[in-house]
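Students often ask why we bother encoding 3D structure as a string. The short answer is that it lets us treat folding as translation between two languages. Here is a chain of 135 residues written in the first language.
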Amino acid sequence: MDVNVDEAAGPAGTALLRVAGMPLEAWTAAGNPELFAQFADHDRRDERRAEQARELAAQLGVVVVPHPALTPADRRAVLALRRRLHSGAAPGPADRALLERLPAARGLVTDAARLAAEAESVSAALRRLEDAVAN
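And here it is in the second language, the structure alphabet:
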């Protein structure tokens, strides 16, 4: 393995590391299969949560948006929430409060709360993974 350092660049300079002859075992020994498995699990959970958000968006479109008692302002708020859910985002506290006060959405409040809790869990898991990578 050859290392060439650009000394003109100072102590924070660039380095060229040639690894063409480096044994493959060195590369595989540097890996962490358990950490990669945790990232794969995180990705699966995040995709499942995004799919649940899209399902909730579809339910809002069928049940809540066409409801005749919905005011124009509430309809705009529900449509904005629906767009965020279609993008995979989880409902926030204000979104859940909106659904709780709309009679047409009462059946979806539990789903929204469950989705928000899952999003928080996925976010906490990602922070733990980021800490594991940093340390």
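Translate back mentally: Helices lie at 24-29, 33-64, 72-86, 93-101, 109-134. Keep this in mind for the problem set.
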